[in-house]
Amino acid sequence: MYMLLPYHGLDNLENQVACALRALPAQDFGSITPTETNTFWTPDGHFFRVVLYYIGLSSSKAQSNSFESALPLSEVPLIQHDITKSTIEAAMTEFEEVLGSAHITTSRTDIDYHASSDWMTHPAKDMERFSSVVFPASMQNVAKLMKICHRRRIPVTGYSGGTSLEGHFVPTHGGVCFYFDFQRMDRVISLHKDDLDVVVQSGVGWESLNDQLAEDNLYFPPSPGPGVMIDGMVLSLTVVLPDGTIIKTRQRPRKSSAGHDLTKLFIGSEGTLGLVTEAALRLTVRPQSTSVAVSTSKSIRDAASCVAKVVSNGIPVAAVEVLDGLQMRCINEAGATLRSWTEAPTLFFKFSGSHQGVDWRCGRSHEPTS
């Protein structure tokens, strides 16, 4: 007994059924005859259901073959960027509508400055240059610019402090440089004194931030070095994704373990997953006193052993830095300090706290280093 099953959903269902039939033994299910009204004669409707099952099965297999979870990088299709002259010129017109011409530069000097540095271990090659450098002033500016670049497939590189040693901001694919300028994105957005945190734009330097926080007897503890921006040392981030979408990695309440730790994910991505435009930072009360103890060693290995001894003796250290003999020689030749340093591996221990506590820590630190 045959029954008529109408179907009005997929226009190409007949083709799908034909493809499914090729993979099935015909004798198991009898025959099937499509009509001009897009209906099917099936034995008790069973064959129709089986065909749909195999259609879904073949579709899922095709998808799994196209999107392997462990696909080798060599088989991943390359991203097709478009940095042709016509595309860049069209994008520049749109950039001007967002920022104004005063905040866009194509100067060779500016492009060279933002593409590489003298202290990089992997400096940019001669052909690795941006087409232009733009200076956004807000998160909304960045989002609009990213949407333009995403639509036109123009590669983007973020630039902030420019202190990278490993070539993170080298424009290996050309495109556009987004410079988070000191004068354009350096605002403290909100300060929460009781909660000991502050929300700032990504162009704020830690030294200038601490100058502002000193008025409220607060302090941003990390001391990574002059000129370093604060994108990494944060409680949460506001990020503009490649397509211009704006996200927050977490809300301000700290005591939460819900969801993935997107903050650390974006910190470790070094700008490859999105551009950080705002950061919430943890603060502490400004210490009464700070001091630095200096110790020289015969080798880097001895210096590392010295740090281990200081820490194992229970001496609280606010920060520690090690410079090798070559770096110490560069400091002497630069003449940037008031004294001449021994050109050997040198440790700098920073201590902070009360006056008595700092004196005690400095004295104790001499024991393991002597």
Q: pLDDT under 50 segments (min length 5)? A: 1-11, 24-47
Strand order of the largest sheet: 8-9-13-11-12
Largest sheet: 5 strands, antiparallel
Annotation, overall tally of beta strands: 17
The secondary structure category is alpha+beta
Percentage of residues in helical conformation:
25-40%
Which strand-content bin applies to the residues? 15-25%
InterPro entries: FAD-bd_oxidored_4_C, FAD-bd_PCMH, FAD-bd_PCMH-like_sf, FAD-bd_PCMH_sub2, FAD-linked_Oxase-like_C, Oxid_FAD_bind_N
Domain FAD-binding PCMH-type: 125-286
Keywords: FAD, Flavoprotein, Oxidoreductase
Protein name: FAD-binding PCMH-type domain-containing protein
Task: Characterise this structure.
- A five-stranded antiparallel β-sheet has the order 8-9-13-11-12. Strands 4-5-7-6 form a four-stranded mixed β-sheet, with helices on both faces. Strands 1-3-2 form a three-stranded antiparallel β-sheet, with helices on one face.
- Residues 1-11 and 24-47 have low confidence and may be disordered.
- It is 33% helix and 21% strand.
- It folds into four domains: 2-73; 85-179, Uridine Diphospho-n-acetylenolpyruvylglucosamine Reductase, domain 2 (2-Layer Sandwich), CATH 3.30.43; 188-285, Uridine Diphospho-n-acetylenolpyruvylglucosamine Reductase, domain 3; 289-369, Alpha-Beta Plaits, CATH 3.30.70.
- The chain has 370 residues and is α+β, with helices and mostly antiparallel strands.
- A hairpin with a 5-residue loop joins strand 11 (236-240) and strand 12 (246-248).
- It has helices spanning 13-22, 46-66, 85-99, 108-115, 139-152, 206-213, 262-269, 300-312, 325-334, 355-369, and strands spanning 2-6, 33-34, 39-43, 104-105, 132-134, 156-159, 176-179, 188-192, 197-201, 218-219, 236-240, 246-248, 275-282, 284-285, 289-296, 319-323, 346-353.
- The longest helix is centred in the N-terminal third of the chain and has 21 residues, at 46-66.
